[in-house]
Q: What sequence folds into this?
């Protein structure tokens, strides 16, 4: 599975959009981009995933560049409850396991 | 629908003592994972089950760790004897066969402290 690079930490004001970047320059054509988050003292939670088209659900939007070498997770109106570590993971559709990096620690402030 | 249930949530033991963690996955989920998460790091896979069969245990330290999923539902992860370096959060996750391979449901984890 391709490796990903994420900033160590980010801050965002409550009510503003949080844009979390992820680089995956070695991604293969059959690899998906998955995003998870982990709130303090909880297990990771699936957010969204995509292959090449942009995706949106009730939690977030995922924007994947045309060359698929990077993506951005967007939380449109961040709240204090969105403070968490966000993991970007790349894997194939037949992959048997998730491999987590160290993620981005997002701090949402008043 | 109940999520993945793990117990205990917290466990403090002295080194060389045994410890066991229990996981009840979401009903109908045939794939079960045990991950270990060290402080400040992302979770790392220890073992994956497909029903009752352990299909990937390459990262499980087999000298002291063991796991079982006898009837393909609940699972237990055991450490005997525990070492100081085993202090971590042990996470269980499950997935339904028909869902995306990357969409796992995690429990809240069991935090182990070895003194």
A:
């Amino acid at each position: 599975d391709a490796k990903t690079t994420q900033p160590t930490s980010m801050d965002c004001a409550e009510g503003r959009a949080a844009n979390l970047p992820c680089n995956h320059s070695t991604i293969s054509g059959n690899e998906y981009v998955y995003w998870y988050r982990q709130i303090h003292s909880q297990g990771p939670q699936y957010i969204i995933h995509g292959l090449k088209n942009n995706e949106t659900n009730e939690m977030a939007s995922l924007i994947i560049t045309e060359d698929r070498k990077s993506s951005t997770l967007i939380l449109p109106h961040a709240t204090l409850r969105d403070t968490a570590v966000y993991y970007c993971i790349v894997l194939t559709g037949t992959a048997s396991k998730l491999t987590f990096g160290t993620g981005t620690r997002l701090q949402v402030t008043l | 629908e109940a999520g993945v249930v793990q117990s205990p949530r917290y466990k403090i033991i002295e080194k060389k003592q045994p410890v066991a963690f229990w996981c009840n996955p979401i009903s109908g989920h045939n794939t079960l994972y045990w991950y270990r998460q060290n402080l400040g790091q992302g979770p790392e896979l220890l073992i994956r089950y497909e029903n009752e069969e352990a299909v990937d245990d390459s990262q499980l330290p087999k000298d002291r760790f063991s796991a079982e999923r006898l009837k393909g539902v609940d699972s237990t992860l055991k450490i005997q004897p525990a070492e100081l370096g085993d202090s971590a959060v042990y996470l269980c996750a499950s997935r339904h066969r028909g869902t995306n391979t990357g969409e796992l449901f995690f429990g809240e984890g069991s935090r182990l402290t070895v003194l």
Q: What stands out?
A: The interface with chain A takes residues 4, 33, 40-45, 48, 55-56, 91, 93, 100-109 of chain B (CB under 8 Å).
